[in-house]
Amino acid sequence: MKPESIDFDKAAADRDALVGRHTDLVRQIALKLKRRVPQHVDLNDLMQSGIVGLLEAAQRYDGSGRSTFATFASYRIRGAMVDLLRKSDMMSRSNRRRLRSVDSAQADLQSASLGKAPPALVAKAMGISVDAYHRLI
């Protein structure tokens, strides 16, 4: 009895076809993520890391799961992009969260007063001292 042989060329062609059909998904995810990150983050860098995620998804997808390839790949693509952002960020996640709360308090006070809010008001709105506010900034 002859052992079953795996057709590696067919598997590679199927994987290439999956990647080819879903490259637009990488662009969609990158554009969506680009709106939520600082402007210095390059769209091409996001897309490049997304392509790497798409290639990994194509290698790991077996088709036996409940999700379609597009659903499976979108998690891998976005994850690869977020990993790139985390690696290139010099600030820790907790500090980034604190900075977002400062920005939010400043924006709220600016919209209420139609001008730039003084640090004392921002610190009071955040429930911290002025010194703590200056350390955050």
Per-chain topology:
Elements: H1 8-21, H2 23-34, H3 43-60, H4 69-88, H5 93-113, H6 119-126, H7 130-136
Helix pairs in contact: 1-3, 2-3, 2-4, 3-4, 5-6, 6-7
Helix residue percentage: over 70%
Helix segment tally? 7
Structural class: mainly alpha
Q: How far is the first residue's CA from the last residue's CA? A: 73 Å
* Rounded average pLDDT: 83
Strand content: under 5%
String of helices and strands: HHHHHHH
Outline of the structure:
This protein is mainly α and 137 residues long. It has helices at 8-21, 23-34, 43-60, 69-88, 93-113, 119-126, 130-136.
Structural commentary:
It is a single chain. The protein has 137 residues and is mostly helical. The mean pLDDT is 83. It is 73% helix and 0% strand. It is elongated and about 65 Å long. The protein has helices at 8-21, 23-34, 43-60, 69-88, 93-113, 119-126, 130-136. The protein has seven helices and no strands. Helix 2 (23-34) crosses helix 3 and helix 2 crosses helix 4.
Provide the descriptors you would attach to this structure in a database record.
single chain, 137 residues, mainly alpha, 7 helices
